[in-house]
Design a protein that fits this description.
By secondary structure, the chain is of the alpha/beta class. It contains 3 helices and 6 strands. The strands form 2 sheets. The protein has a 3-stranded parallel β-sheet. Strands 4-3-5 form a 3-stranded antiparallel β-sheet. The chain is elongated.
Length: about 110
């Protein structure tokens, strides 16, 4: 049995194959995909320059694409997400995965905070 690990882009690097990028908004208007269109270094430099950044949950399409690809390449998927107390990433990943998995297991790290 092959287990595939997927993760939100806010999780420390484990593998770079199945990363679901969070949305990073700059100055309330420009949107980037975390780790694809913008790096942590660019965000830190932008903060030093006075820019304002926010994060948002990944798109439904990014979750769907990544989960389906993982299921094509493995027998089961374990998704790592930031705490649902910090943002919506954990909640969104759980809800969006329900139609894809026969037996969803626990998501999020609510008790780890």
């Amino acid at each position: 049995m092959k287990t595939i690990i997927t993760k939100d882009s806010g999780i420390d690097p484990i593998n770079d194959l199945y990363v679901i990028p969070a949305i990073v908004r700059k100055d309330f208007k420009l949107e980037y995909k975390d780790g694809i269109d913008i790096t942590s270094e660019e965000v830190l430099k932008g903060v030093d320059e006075g820019h304002i950044y926010q994060t948002a949950a990944p798109s439904i399409e990014d979750y769907d694409k990544t989960f389906r690809e993982a299921l094509r390449n493995g027998d089961e998927v374990v998704h790592l997400s930031m705490s649902s107390l910090l943002n919506l990433l954990a909640t969104d990943s759980e809800v969006l995965s329900l139609p894809l998995f026969k037996k969803p297991i626990g998501f999020g790290t609510k008790n780890a905070v």
